[in-house]
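Example 335.
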Amino acid sequence: MTFSSYASFSVRAALVAMVLASGSNAHLVAYSKGMFCKNDYGTADAPNAAVAISPLWNLTWTDWFLHGKCRQYPPPAGEFLSIPSGGNFTVEIAANRAFTTLSYNGGKATDWPDGKVHPTNWSTNVNDPNYPPTSSGCISSPNLHAHNESDAAGTAFAISYNNNINTVNISDFTVFSVLPNTPYRRIATYQVPNLPACPAGGCLCAWAWIPNHCGQDNMYMNGYRCQVTGATASAKAVASPVPAQWCESDQSQCIIGAKQLSIQYQAQGNNVQLPPGFQKDGSWPSPGYNLKMGFKSGAQTDIFSKATAPVTPNTCPAAATVTVTQTVTITATPK
Ligand SMILES: *[C@@H]1O[C@H](CO)[C@@H](O)[C@H](O)[C@H]1NC(C)=O
Ligand SMILES: *[C@@H]1O[C@H](CO)[C@@H](O)[C@H](O)[C@H]1NC(C)=O
Ligand SMILES: *[C@@H]1O[C@H](CO)[C@@H](O)[C@H](O)[C@H]1NC(C)=O
Ligand SMILES: *[C@@H]1O[C@H](CO)[C@@H](O)[C@H](O)[C@H]1NC(C)=O
Ligand SMILES: *[C@@H]1O[C@H](CO)[C@@H](O)[C@H](O)[C@H]1NC(C)=O
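Predicted structure in complex with 2-acetamido-2-deoxy-beta-D-glucopyranose:
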């Protein structure tokens, strides 16, 4: 082993140890099968993968969309996050893959995203000398940008029926599920409306979170190859989404219908306009996946167009067994 590879190995080992030990600088993402960057920027199994947790702030489209470089690190062929039409699915929100059941047979996973044990209903009202609040008075570990569960801003899943990672864009993704008061615990279960089936090769999904302050304002986003299961042939197509709109104190301003993921705090591509002044809690307006932006809790049932979704190959019933009863030999006649 050369000195330089030894050195980089030690640095890497030290970084991993630091991530596992501290957690206080860590942020969060939804871990699941089918996710991009499950092995960080590589293909070898990476049980401590955590690049997808990093916050997105002041970035260009190339660097924030589906977590930038993570778009180049898809899951293995055929691996999908399964989205049951009309049902629910569960992911694990964590600060590191180590703290989920995707690593170490779940041996480092607890009820919490940081792999630690905290009191039930962990909040800044609970005094724990091991995990004092951050300088802004918020829960420090897990770093969930909130004082308590009811203060957590909400997270969302969106779906795109364009599954080409090279051409897909924010206008293809429709938010189909919102989970209020998350991120908070590791286990997060999202409700699904009656989504139609995906085309051959599945769909693309995205998880997103915009915290309500409690630290630097930023956003979180990651991509997944996903597959809608159990869709009915009569399921309606998902309509083209438009950007969501601030409507905290005027419900008539809420967008009803298919909405895009909200993009904020970036150098490029922001699609949210915030009002001047303060939001009701007294801080600057913060667009999250919650009622302030017109996102109701649970399955988003208002996202469909009137049209029945086109029948795609994977909605067809399995082909019947063909019995060959006759063999015909055709001899082409030369012209
Ligand atoms: C945001 O990024 C741009 C480059 O894209 C840079 O010029 C600018 O200084 C950054 N803004 C802040 C506040 O760091
Ligand atoms: C999710 O779906 C399963 C099976 O349909 C059901 O038993 C369970 O109660 C649902 N969980 C939530 C949180 O909706
Ligand atoms: C935790 O909070 C939930 C509401 O979110 C409440 O129903 C429950 O009683 C609380 N548990 C404890 C131990 O305080
Ligand atoms: C949660 O935190 C918010 C913001 O500090 C506070 O207004 C609210 O009372 C807290 N709720 C609970 C249940 O502690
Ligand atoms: C996606 O849309 C953004 C505008 O939001 C644009 O800047 C970017 O070039 C588009 N990317 C692709 C690959 O179409």
